[in-house]
Amino acid sequence: MATIKGYNMPDELYYHEEHSWARVEDGKVTVGMDDMFQKEAGDVVFVDLPDEEDEVEQGEVCGKIQSRKWIGKLCAPVSGEIVEINEDLEDDTTLINEDPYGKGWILVIEPSDLENELGNLMHGDSLLPFIDQEIKRTEEEKAKA
Amino acid sequence: MTSWRLFEDIVNPVSTALGLSIDDTLPLSLSQHGSPPILHLYVFKPSAIVGKYQDINAALRLDRCRHREIEFNRRSTGGGTVIMGPKAVALGLGITLDHPGLKGGINGIFESLSAVLLAALGDLGIRAEFRPKNDLEVRGKKIAGLSASLETEKAVLFHASLLVDFDIPLMLDIIHQPPLKLYDKGYSCFSQRITTIKEQLGHDVDMGTIIAAVENAFSQRFDISFQADEPDTWEKKSIQEFTTARYTNPDWIFSHKHPRSRMGVSEVKTPGGLLEIYLALAGNTIEHIMITGDFFSTTKDINLLESALKWTSAKRKKIEEHLSEVWRDEIIYGVSFDTLTEAILQAKENLIAT
After folding, report:
1. Which of A61, A69, A141 faces B104 most closely, judged by CB atoms?
2. What residues have CB less than 8 Å from A136, skipping those under 6 apart?
3. CB neighbours (10 Å) of residue B221?
4. A43 vs B112, B282, B312: nearest CB
5. Domain hosting residue A87, numbered range
6. Domain with B268 in it: what CATH number?
7. What pTM value is reported for the model?
8. Do B106 and A40 count as a contact with CB atoms less than 8 A apart?
9. Fewer CB within 10 A of the terminal residue: chain A, N end or C end?
10. What pLDDT, in 10s, does the model give residues B80-105?
């Protein structure tokens, strides 16, 4: 379990730059939103998810997430077919806040090109510069403002 | 100096379908059509517009809307119901997330764009404040609401409504509201929570003056100039597509039915007086809350508490977390943190028919 600049970013996961994460297990990919997203967004109040059996491309917007009055996007970290949706989110969307890597998982993808696509995601040491850059961007813009 | 495009028409109120379709095209035009940022300033025909994920049947009395010829529709950005018309400035902005001068992150974007509207109001002689997370207020009363949506790569649609004048009796007639015991009380509750440019200045204001203040504030903040423009051929096609797919399409307008949309009420006697809570819930989300009664507090503090809870989870842990962000001793005289929390939870359980 890695904490980077105050954000919990587990080592074993792969991360998309739009803050979705991917966990590879038994050839399938579980997807959720990372800790940096949920801390910044605040309470998730609605999620709009695709249907099972939908096909998605890596980076494609496959869902919407509302926190307060902001509607953000869930980008598919890998291509493939959606084989499962977390139905518990229908009752409690704040699972994404409370347990982003556990009960707050969002969907599962049966990947179509996993080996090639994992290389496009951030993992391990490559995550630190990304988090740094995200924090720096926010601070720089705040300074400008 | 960088130039932004300006779509402006405050003379001819537009249908919700047209206004919202133009707005949805703005970020798309930036990300797919190479446009610079576009500011759209306009007015709607009399209308009620719900947020992307609201249940329109739960939010509005559609029979009353039809009877009064008030259009209703669903926008693509978040938040709650807004009542629009010729006396409310509608603002749509398409801007890239990395635009110079725009703070980073969700909260940063709201803060940056709020600062522009605060400057515009200041220019008109109104000292307003940003009420986290999404509203502008004058001494605790809401004068503008903000919302946003990120549908395309790197470009965001930002919506704002700026109240120039407001018809509270109309609102009380067309929205589903808590069954307050007396009409007068309903009027009073809303008049203590909403204000307008006209009310603040004590006289009518020319819409052109307001629009000029908004444009000037954007120019100053982002160091840009505006080029008056209108949608080009590519954008007109997109506008038509959004009109067909969304804003004249019942599947879009009536989407997002929440089987668990409901209202709750509680009344609790406290050392500070009677405390009444009215709650509108969608699933486990607080869409709206009204804290009222005969206790002693200020409009600003009550609105601060209500605002901290709107669009958050109705779970005990979350209610406590959000209340504690703004709570201070005697914010409501004679009402403790625990009493208020319990009253809200009681309202959640004590459901009422609407």
Report:
1. A141
2. none
3. 18
4. B312
5. 3-133
6. 3.30.390.50
7. 0.85
8. yes
9. N
10. 899 999 999 999 999 998 899 888 77
